[in-house]
Amino acid sequence: MNYHQYHPIDVVNGPGTRCTLFVSGCEHQCRGCYNQSTWSLRSGHAFTPALEDQIIADLNDTRIKKRGLSLSGGDPLHPANVEAVLKLVKRVKSECVGKDIWLWSGYTLANLSAKQREVIDLVDVLVDGKFEQPLFDPELEWRGSSNQIIHRFTEI
How confident is the model at residue 23, as a pLDDT? Predict the structure, then answer.
């Protein structure tokens, strides 16, 4: 998997102070997407074990308390990303007690593969659905268009 950007301190992509990983690769290529530079699977940098370790360390850093991890892109549920994302979310759940995981995907909950569902089973919040430019609404919280649905799987 490649990633486009990693922000160890982020207050935009989810509630509270978070760590945010923008993965590379998106097959949806939504018109009006604000992150088109992440569409290519080859864009960005290789996601390494060292970066995975850094994310875990940043989430557990007590100097700036983090509420959780946000995964966006690109698309974390792109078939080429699922294995690495699954490994990361498993580590977060086991090594970062009390941290939540938010994930944004153009795939919908109803149409996920078995492997994508394994990832979703470990996240607390899924924002699903492609960005639809005609349904864009800047007043929406945590999503860009009104067709996108926020699924809260745990009480956070």
Answer: 97
Q: Domain spanning 2-152: which superfamily?
A: Aldolase class I (3.20.20.70)
- Residue 45 Rama label (left phi>0; alpha psi -120 to 50; beta): beta
Give Cα separations from 22 to 73, 135, 154 (angstroms): 4, 23, 23
Distance CA 104, CA 71 (A): 6
| Helix (H/G/I), strand (E/B), else coil: 23 | strand
Q: Amino acid identity, residue 119?
A: V
DSSP designation for 37 = G
What b/e string do you get for 17-44 counting C-beta neighbours within 10 Å, with b at 16 or more? ebbbbbbbbbebebeebebeebbebebb
What are the 10-residue block averages of pLDDT along the chain, 156 residues in total? 97 97 90 79 96 99 97 96 99 98 96 97 97 92 94 88
Q: Evaluate the omega torsion of the peptide bond into residue 98 and state whether it is cis, within 30 degrees of 0.
A: no
